[in-house]
Amino acid sequence: MPVAEPAPPTRRIKREDLFAPDLVRAALRQAVVMLRPDIQWKNPVMFVVELGAVLTLLFVLHSALGDSSSRVSITYFIALDAWLFLTVLFANFATALAEERGKAQAESLRRTRRETPAWRLGPTGVEQVSSTDLEAGDTVVVLPGQVIPGDGEIIEGIASVDESAITGESAPVIREAGGDRSGVTGGTLVLSDRIVIRVTAASGESFLDRMIALVEGAVRQRTPNEIALTLVLTAFTLIFTIVVVPLWAVAWNAERYMMIYLGLREPIKSLGTDVPTLIALLVCLIPTTIGGLLAAIGIAGMDRALRANIIAKSGRAVEIAGDIDTVLLDKTGTITRGNRRATEFCPVGSSVAGEVARLAALASLADETPEGKSIVAAVEVRQGTVVPARGARFIAFTAQTRMSGIDLPDGGCIRKGAVEAIVRHVEKQGGSIPSDLVPTVRQVAARGATPLVVANGRQIVGVVVLEDILKPGIRQRFERMRRMGLRTVMITGDNQLTAAAIAQQAGVDDFVAEATPESKLAYITREQAEGKLVAMMGDGTNDAPALAQADLGLAMNSGTQAAKEAGNMVDLDSDPSKLIEVVEIGKQLLMTRGALTTFSIANDVAKYFAIVPALFAGTLPWLGAMNIMRLHSPTSAILAAVIFNAIIIPLLIPIALKGVAYRPLGAEALLRRNLLIWGLGGVIVPFIGIKLIDLIMVALRLVA
Q: 395 - beta bridge partners?
């Protein structure tokens, strides 16, 4: 007989310090490992820096052997080479730290997994097996106090489940067979009642297993935008390389020109013919800042999603969230509280309210939706337990038929459902529509409630009123999304009048009334045909086609396996409003990448004014007018620029990992903001930083 198992350790979503000692130590070790050329070449910008550092090291060794014609001390080249290697190490550290933070989150998920006993239903009865021996399709029994052995769907029973081990939320949730709340996750704890679960994922193949593998995978899949930006940065690197390489010949000719001009016997040596100095110029001009932080930004985006209890199946899903144009939101649970309940039974024709309530309850016995259950519960409070006739045949509610019912042994036929569905059913039976039905339906719909019609045979007897209320602040959230450039669309099974009333109250841009799986899919396809990216959230099997078609499909973890397989994200909290947060996470990722790219390109200006005059200070003294920062000497100018170029990477790591402050702005406003803050800042900050470093080196007598 099954016995209770102790609860698994609880995973709490908490904000760890960016530079937690254990993470920093692991990241530092990994940063050194990533110096391997077979790893470094995947980042072309930093690979060029590493090559430059190696060439500079060879130059230093050559000079140390006494074969050097440079006019500067070897200590200058040693310092230069050290900072070039540090530039690569800082970039590697940024990427490694982002990966370690993701791995820490994955480890907290792994702690929820452990081998537990499972009681599998077999041909000979219940047998005890290990959870690792379960296969997809197995059926297991779970009793109160036991840990659910694997991902699955409840096929029998209803239970209170503690999902804190996965979501960090201590409040238990209800999971039950039928409907869209049947999904359960391995590692969670059953608190009450007996349930039977059909396993949907074998050991090692659950969503958590996939997420852990994704985070800890040796090869990270880069997103299309990241690949495109990498190509652009590589092109910049190639262009600057082509520009810098000929400068050696320019400097060499300038030395000889000045020798002839001044009538000297020996050429005047300049830093322009020292290969390490040209390498320093190249490193400072290529976009090393964004090149060093690009991978960390992408990894951090997925980490932020995971911290919000969202499992993204790829980094591309998070990135797409930032480009979304249209958001499809279910009315129930997202726009309204999702607690729609039967509050009134309105008779039409010659019927009476009590009879309408009784018939509605009988027709709802096979309706597993919360609304159907609320009708039964409301009637049982008023009239007692609803007992169907022996031999009755139940008609379950489906999204296609949009009605449920019961066929009685005496030939009676009771149906309850959407207005249009019941009207068609009655007309098909040869019945007529009461004259007061339409006014009653309109009156109910006008106040934002949902009318359901009840029919007994060929006669419509009344209307069931389902009421829900808007979530507080939902109108302001939609206004915020509108400022972000998003178009919001409400999806509801309500009729046109009810949908229009709620849409107006909530402030959405559009709505789809009387929604079916086919109409959802058609709406998404139509939006995509106009070049728009569409996001939607769903939890039921009937949502699966639309989730698969949407550019961003967010499935609820409590939903069916079909929905979770179709989407490219899964919300462990099963919060219908989480889609809004997902879009904000995606937009923050794109904003961070854009801001740091702008900063990286803009700060080349100051480095140009620091290094170019220093290169030709000895041969072309009139270029000294470009030394607007009044740096101490050519060597101090070049070292200051290289040092700033290196230390700016770790200084920007917190921004890369946390993301820039999010603002609900449109594309044009964001562009202006980027240019003003990060573009102008990228020009000004290096001037200040390079000058300060120069002053510090002079004060400490580190440069001549």
A: 405
**Residues 629, 632, 635, 638, Cα dihedral to 10°:** -20
Among residues 673, 682, 675, which one has the least CA distance to residue 648? 682
Cα dihedral sign, 545-550-556-562 = positive
Amino acid at 161: V
Asked if residue 680 lies in contact with residue 673, where contact means CB atoms within 8 angstroms, the answer is no
**Is the dihedral angle over the CA atoms 57, 58, 59, 60 positive or is it negative?**
positive
Q: Edge-to-edge strands of the sheet including 450-456? A: 341-347, 459-467, 450-456, 413-417, 403-407, 393-395
Q: Can you give the length of the chain in residues?
A: 704
Query: Catalytic residue positions?
Result: 330
Beta strands in 264-350 (DSSP E): 310-312, 326-330, 341-347
Identify the residue whose tokens are 């009784």: 358
User: Is the CB of residue 610 less than 8 Å from the CB of residue 629?
Assistant: yes
With both helix axes pointing from N to C terminus, report the angle between 74-110 and 207-216 in degrees, rounded to the nearest 10.
170
Closest CA to 557 of 208, 130, 118: 208
The mean predicted confidence, pLDDT, of the chain is 83
Tell me the β-bridge partners of 415.
405, 455
Q: Is residue 474 within 8 Å of residue 503, measured between CB atoms?
A: no
* Terminal alpha carbon distance of the chain: 84
pTM: 0.72
> CB atoms < 10 A from the CB of 8, how many?
21
**156 φ/ψ sector (left φ>0, alpha ψ -120 to 50, else beta):** beta
Q: Which two tokens stand for residue 165?
A: 């081990």
- Lookup: tokens for 382: 């008023």
What is the per-residue pLDDT across 432-468, written as a single tens digit (0 to 9) for each?
889 899 999 988 888 878 899 999 999 999 999 988 7
The number of helix segments (H) and strand segments (E) in the chain equals 25, 22
- Helices (H), ranges, 447-577: 474-483, 496-506, 517-529, 544-549, 561-566
DSSP code for 627? -
Nearest CA to 174 among 150, 183, 471, 3?
183
157 close to 177: Cβ distance less than 8 angstroms: yes
Confidence of residue 650 (pLDDT cuts 50, 70, 90): very high
- Token pair for 223: 């997103």
Name residue 416's beta-bridge partners: 404, 454
Contact (CB, 8 A) for 590 and 583: no
Instruction: Please report where in the chains the tokens 């923050």 appear, as a residue.
Output: 588
678 secondary structure, DSSP code: I
Helix H or strand E encompassing 681: helix 680-699
Q: Which residues pair with 453 in a beta bridge?
A: 417, 463
pLDDT digits (tens, 9 = 90+) for 223-262: 777 888 889 999 989 998 898 888 777 777 776 677 676 6
Under 8 Å between Cβ of 613 and 637:
yes
Tokens coding 86: 């540090």
Q: How many CA atoms lie within 13 A of 209 on its CB side?
A: 14
Answer positive or negative: Cα dihedral of 377, 380, 385, 388. negative
Kindly state the average pLDDT of the residues 550-573. 83
